[in-house]
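User: Teach me something about this protein's shape.
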Amino acid sequence: MPRVRPMSVIERLDELYAIGGGRGANRLGGSREEDEAHELVAGWMREAGLEVSVDSTRNLFGRLPGRRPELEEVWTGSHLDSVPEGGRFDGALGVVGGLEAVARAGRRERTLAVVAFRDEEGCSGPGCAGSRGFCESGAPRPGSFLELHVEQGPRLERLGAPLAVVTGIVATARGEVVFEGEPGHAGTTPMAARRDALVEAAEFVLGLPAAAAAVEDSVATVGRLSVEPGASNVIPGRVVLSVDVRAPDDAGLEQILADVPGVLRRSAAVAMAEEPTAALRQEVERLALPVVELASGAGHDAGVLASAGVPTAMLFVRSLNGGISHSPEELSDEADVELGIQVLTGALARLGAVD
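Assistant: First, the predicted structure itself:
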């Protein structure tokens, strides 16, 4: 079958990166730019000899039919949307690299497919809209799903390792916390008589890092804060702030949340499945690379499929520049990308075979 031209993966990432113009990647979910990216990748799928289709949630599929099409399929992929002024690799690597891996793996007993899910970033919604929509649609699910993704963090760079097998996706809690006080005149209300909502909120914000640090490999962030009534000469009467907490497991998350007032939206930790994870690990070992295992601190389409019962695995490619992501400064080395594609190709070949 036709092969994706060697060394074209970075070029194709560059072509996707240029869509929309401006600084960084600008392909927000639901936008004309995301549509353009899907149309571009659909053309690449056809060039690679894949059967192209779009499902009811507008997810894009490229299938290489297996010798035994009645068997459960093996999928790889990710997403093509981005945050505003995003990076070159986030999501797109999993689709473009997945396309290359399917082409290299060639025809197997099982059908191999690469999928581009819609609106993973959720800039104006809950995120992972395409993968959630697929899981809720009642459509036949694959026998396994593998997602290639950049790490989006500094750990692999610090370890000097190009790849990591992902063990799971962390537990998360997100939402808003409200602090109520009593507004008053900034010049005439004695300090002892004040109920300053911002002071109470500030104490919470300053204490949250310590609560997260007490649970290994956990993080907590306050990224947005609104003060009412918002006048320089009025004591703050109400503060609303965002909270994002992530922990390796559900117990650790609950320990941190004991210090958080209010109720946040929780997502349980998700473990990767043994069989597809073992296939990735075996390919890393075959290439004589260090076998590094990491949990993912970010949410992914892989987590949605795993939560829905699809046997799922993830492979991280080392991020450079200190692991910065969601930024034009996002960077991964072409050699690391190639190693990731080699591992993914081998894992797809293993899972696509029938004993």
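Now, about its shape. The chain has two domains: 9-170+269-352, 172-265. Confidence is low (pLDDT under 50) at residues 1-7. If you'd like, I can walk through any region in more detail.
User: That's plenty for now, thanks!
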